[in-house]
Specification:
The chain is of the alpha+beta class. The protein contains ten helices and ten strands. It folds into two domains: about 100 residues, Phosphorylase Kinase, domain 1 (2-Layer Sandwich), CATH 3.30.200.20; about 200 residues, Aminoglycoside phosphotransferase (APH), C-terminal lobe (Aminoglycoside 3'-phosphotransferase, Chain: A, domain 2, Alpha-Beta Complex). The radius of gyration is 20 Å and the shape is globular.
Length: about 300
């Protein structure tokens, strides 16, 4: 089942043709479709070293090319800046055969995504995750600030999207309760914290794991400046209560930063549940579990007390 309206279809035969025409040096390498948990790209392996990513949603060619070039720049900036491996950009492909958009090639990272090997109870994974977030925050923003329209800026700017989510979730979730939660979270102040560098999408499908340890990071094209609490979504998407507290202690998060991270996770989870309930049940379940963790958190803080928090 398709996940998006007018979703593009990408077949192995089309990928084979595009590679043979545009990158003849790879003609001898096999092409294999990857059953990924992602929602934005169709992914194909090229031999053992490379992965080709094809945007699934129709868009203007030039805007897609700009987006892919931005993702390449972000990936290049991140390579080698944390002890955890990240994909390295290799090439950009052009429209052709039966595929209408530019596409990208990057190095392939072997491993198992956290969707398939749940690290939620692992204290060691929580420490790894804290090290990752710390490494990302330590990278110089070079004066850049958040300039996007998605997660990472102001919480109240997501009111319209949240209303959409509540409306579509009425038969799936306890919407009255969730509305009350959002009414609290949306009012959390930014405080004095300046933007830091963040991955921006630390969900299970983007984390490679082995034996309860973090071994690699995927989907790094959104790496950039954002609210320093943004990458704390990982606490709610990936960890149970005990390891989650380890992550918080390791990073030294204050109440406001922690609650804002919860707010970003709440926004993301609300969208995952209803949007993918039929087309990508795994992603929908990820959203449900994150919401359950938020609602079960004993440390849920009254936003009114934090309105004067500026540390």
């Amino acid at each position: 089942m398709k996940m998006h309206a007018n979703q593009l279809t990408v077949s192995p035969e089309t990928v084979r043709t595009l590679i043979d025409q545009q990158f003849p040096e790879w003609r001898s390498l096999p092409v294999r479709s990857i059953t990924a948990h992602g929602t934005v790209n169709a992914v194909f392996r090229i031999g053992d070293q490379f992965a080709a990513r094809f945007p699934l949603q129709p868009a203007d060619i030039e805007s897609t090319r700009r987006l892919l070039k931005s993702e390449v720049e972000a990936a290049r900036e991140l390579v080698g800046r944390t002890r955890f491996p990240t994909p390295e950009p290799v090439a950009l492909g052009e429209p052709g055969a039966d595929y209408p958009l530019p596409w990208s090639v990057q190095t392939w990272l072997p491993g198992i995504v956290a969707v398939d090997e749940d690290p939620g109870e692992s204290v060691a994974f929580a420490r790894d995750l804290a090290d990752l977030v710390g490494d990302l925050r330590a990278i110089d923003t070079r004066g850049r600030t958040f300039a996007g329209t998605g997660r990472g800026g102001d919480l109240p700017s997501h009111d319209t999207w949240m209303e959409t989510c509540f409306r579509h979730s009425e038969k799936l979730l306890d919407v009255p309760r969730l509305r009350r939660v959002w009414a609290t979270l949306r009012d959390l102040p930014r405080g004095a914290a300046e933007d830091v560098m963040a991955h921006g999408d630390l969900i299970p499908g983007n984390m490679l794991v082995s034996d309860g340890r973090l071994t690699g990071i995927l989907d790094v094209g959104g790496f950039g400046p954002a609210d320093p609490s943004l990458d704390l979504v990982s606490a709610w998407h990936l960890l149970e209560a005990g390891p989650r507290q380890v992550l918080r202690d390791h990073l030294g998060c204050n109440d406001l930063e922690w609650e804002r991270g919860k707010a970003w996770a709440f926004i993301q989870a609300m969208g995952l549940v209803w949007y993918y309930v039929e087309s990508n049940p795994t992603m929908s379940r990820t959203g449900r579990r994150s919401l359950e963790r938020v609602l079960a958190d004993k440390g849920f803080t009254d936003a009114r007390r934090l309105m004067t928090w500026h540390s």
